[in-house]
Write a structure and sequence with these properties.
Length: about 300
Amino acid sequence: MKANYQHILEELYHVIKVIPDGGQVAPYIPELAEIDPNKFGVHLATTMGEQFGYGDHEEKFSIQSIGKVLSLTLAFQQKGEALWERVGVEPSGNPFNSLWQLEYEKGKPRNPLINSGAIVICDILCTLFDDPLHDLLAFIRKISGNAEINYNDEVAASEKKLGFRNAALINLMKSCHNIDNEIDEVMDLYYHMCSVEMSCTELANTFLVYANHGKIVSTGESVITSSMAKRINAIMQTCGFYDEAGEYTFKVGLPGKSGIGGGIVAIHPGNYAVAVWSPKLNKKGNSVKGMQLLEILTTKTGLSIF
Ligand code: GLU
């Protein structure tokens, strides 16, 4: 049965819009803290090319940690299985910027979606490319089919200025010989990756590649093998929601990734990618309304991977 996604999204939007959420907009940097907390948008794109959106779905926001999936994809495409010598694939069960586990595990991050893991991925990209900032952006533009996608330099600079814990993470990893390049160069790439801006429409269409077994829907070009897409989806499922990955899987049942800008993107393999944006976050750093919407979406459509 073909789901009437437009009708479902509009209905869910109105139901969830009025639920008091009690969350808080990310306070870390002024650029995020000043976002209107009432923004709310959703967009669903299918592998057949259909588009459904509602609310503030055309407005750009900071994708933050969601960008970690994109940098991981480029590094995995280039390095293959050798990538896992530098970073693991286990959920961390700890906050995204936790230090103690990293020390205990001698500088090898639990997975590529916590900050330490994403920083190692950026180090790998700095080794692979002469101009990693350019090549990462070119890769993101390619899979999104959108040459307008860009970094936000002010957001990147602001985060770099205030990123004391991330500085601690990279210094700890450097002391454990798991960072090869200059700290400043790696962190510059890391913060730019986090500063990428997309709307829900752009985000859903970018992540369609993971729903389409590694092939760009609009061109048919394969950017990663279907086995690689499967592995990245598995990492999103188990590690994509900070230390709330279990709760998210329990409620939503789709591979996905959230960011502290209030975005969440989730995919149903072979079927669709859906992006939600609502800036108020719960205590674990995930968008309150985003989680609610995805939970009801998979319940209503009966479409989850479980
Ligand atoms: N740029 C953020 C940081 O490094 C990313 C956090 C996130 O979205 O999880 O702290």
